[in-house]
Amino acid sequence: MAPISAWSADTWSLIVYVVAVLGIVGLMLGLSWVLGGRDWGRAKDEPFESGVVGQGGARLRFSAKFYLVAMFFVIFDVEALFLYAWAVSVREAGWAGFIEAFVFIFILGASLVYLWKIGALEWAPASRARLQQERSAERSAGPAR
Questions:
Q1: Residue 134 and residue 138: Cα distance in Å, rounded?
Q2: Which pLDDT score, from 0 to 100, does residue 26 have?
Q3: Which residues cross the membrane (predicted)?
Q4: pTM
């Protein structure tokens, strides 16, 4: 008995898989269209979150500090990933890898100290931070006699 075509069993299994996926997708879309609700109303087009109608607009202004802290988090998180990869291969890296990791951690620590010193990690504006410092100084001085 001669083969039906020159395609291998892998090719036929891929074709059967693609046809099955397209069939399931078509079935799900068709059933949702047939069985789905057709009600139209005033509140139908309003966006809501967990059944609660939103208040105000979606265009909120965030402080640049939020974005700075988010970028710092991503940067330091990626560095933690690099350190994890180094920790996995520490035996193969030897002393040269240990020194390189130490230099890398030192640079990370120095950059974190620099960001802390310039106030890039401070959420509060400078006036509020000064007010908090004054209040903490008054508390540490104790009651006046």
A1: 6
A2: 97
A3: 12-35, 66-87, 93-116
A4: 0.43
